[in-house]
Each structure stands twice: as structure tokens, then as C-alpha cells.
Amino acid sequence: MSKPNLKVAIGSLKLQNPVMVASGTFGYGREYADYVDPARLGAIVTKTITKNRREGNRPPRICETTGGMLNAIGLQNEGLEDFIQEKLPACRDAGTKLIVSVGGETSNEYGEVIEALNAYPEVAAYELNISCPNIEYKDKIISQDEELTHKVVRDVRQKTDRTLIVKLSPNVSDITRIARAVQDGGADAVSLVNTFLGMAVDVETRRPVLGNITGGLSGPAIKPMALRMVWQVYNKISLPIVGMGGIMNARDAVEFLIAGATAVAVGTANFVDPRTPLEVVEGIASYLSQHHYKDVKELIGSLNVS
């Protein structure tokens, strides 16, 4: 039997397989080069880039918790110009599609970053990070507001014809309403979910463990909730979905595909074992062969609820 076809498309972005690495968990690709051949991945999603340098939140910024980890990095990065001058040249040699995660506080900031990056053909797509739980825009994050989400997506859509993926927050009452706002704004895909807002307390000092008090919970603890949200959104919009949240192995990834994800992103697992994304690629191919699927697209959205 021939090998199953793993190719998928997200908008105009063609991927050799449906496995990418989640923003903020893989640096800019070169940090993991000694452990993982990025050319074997569907795509790399960079750490979030903002127009200006951000110092991030005060430490401690990361702590382990039951079934996962909390982080409150605060989108620390050196800014757009540093990315173009220092990070992007190394990304050119990754051998796979490069998706740049873009952050900002206004539509204009997102737009300015994207307009600048449009000059670089190696940037294959953008992921709009409008859902970081450690950054507040006035009194809420962008993806907690339907109208604000629609405005940002609509404005940014006018700045580029490259694939535009919008990353959504799970910290909402109905994620499908936000997903519809993204679709109406003209995006090509949604990625979900970002981290769940949580906290940890040091019982000896009676102080928060994180310097920011709260942080984003990721890892296997959130997988059932993330999976449910992917399934809900799949049944409400027509855009492709990049599913993420607690994917630690190939079976986890297959669950997301069955629930409706076109592609998946491996995040926290990269900190546990950097080889996980490649094992997920191989595991998906093995699953397809074992179950006599010729194409991964046969699996997408195949959940049987009857």
C-alpha cells in the first residue's frame, strides 16, 4: 500500500503535512535545530513579533502545574526591526513554511508589522495573536470582543493577500461567535485555542507563584476543552482550523483532526521532548495506513455523533 497523502491547505498556504509548532514554544526555529529537522514539519510558527520591543512581564514567568504549565511571558520580543535583521535570515534556511505570529494593541500596529513583512517572500503566512491572556488591551483582550475582533481582522486583511490565520482565546462564553466574526472579517483560517487563564499560589509564602499573578495554562490538562471548542467551531464556520491545546502525541493530534481541525500545532510538548512534532507527523501517517485512509483529508471532521 502506498504512503497516505499528508498534504493540506490553509487558504493559499500549502503544507506538506498538517503538523506545525505553536507560537512561543519553538522560538524562531533555529533554537531547536540540534534536535528537530524543521524541514520535516508542515510549518513553523514564530514567537509573536510586535512593532516595538517588549520586555514582557516580571518574573517568575513559568511554573509547572498538574497536567500542564502556566506561563506569563507577556510577549517578550526585540521588536520588528530586530526580527527582520537578526531572526528572519536564519528562518530562510528552515526548509519549511514560515508563519509569523504578529501581536499588537491596535489594528494599525498589526498592519504596520504585516506591511513591513510583506517585503519578504519567505514569510508564507501570518497568525494574528489577538488572544494572549497575559496582555490586556484596555479592559479586555481583542478576541473577547466580537466587534473589535471583526475590526482588527478586516483592517489587517486589507494589508496582505497572504494567508491570514487568527488565533482565538478560549476565555470567552461562546468561541463560535468570535470565530464567525473572524470569518466575516475576511481571514483564511482560525487557530484555537490559546491558553486558559489560570494561577498558582505558593502556600508557604501565601503569594502568587507568577510575577504577573495570573498566566496562561497549557498542556494536556486543557486538551478536552480545546478539543470541544475545535468541534464547536468546525460546525459553525467554513474556515480551516488549526487545532492546538495539549497535543502530546499522535493520538492526541488525530483526535483534533477527527473533531474538525485541518492542521494541528504542538506546543507545550516541545518543552518536554523536542522530537514530539516529528513523532506526531509519523504517528498520523501510521494511523492513516492502519485504518486504510489514503489521504489525511478523509479524516478531517469525520467525528461520528449519531
Automatic annotation (TrEMBL):
The active site is at residue 132. FMN binds at residues 23, 47-48, 129, 167, 193, 219, 245-246, 267-268. Its EC number is 1.3.-.-. InterPro entries: Aldolase_TIM, DHO_dehydrogenase, DHOD_1B, Dihydroorotate_DH_1, Dihydroorotate_DH_1_2, Dihydroorotate_DH_cat, Dihydroorotate_DH_CS, Dihydroorotate_DH_I. Keywords: Cytoplasm, Flavoprotein, FMN, Oxidoreductase, Pyrimidine biosynthesis. Its cofactor is FMN. Signal peptide: none annotated. PANTHER family: DIHYDROOROTATE DEHYDROGENASE (FUMARATE) (PTHR48109:SF1), DIHYDROOROTATE DEHYDROGENASE (QUINONE), MITOCHONDRIAL-RELATED (PTHR48109). Catalyzes the conversion of dihydroorotate to orotate. Belongs to the dihydroorotate dehydrogenase family. Type 1 subfamily. This is Dihydroorotate dehydrogenase. It comes from Velamenicoccus archaeovorus.
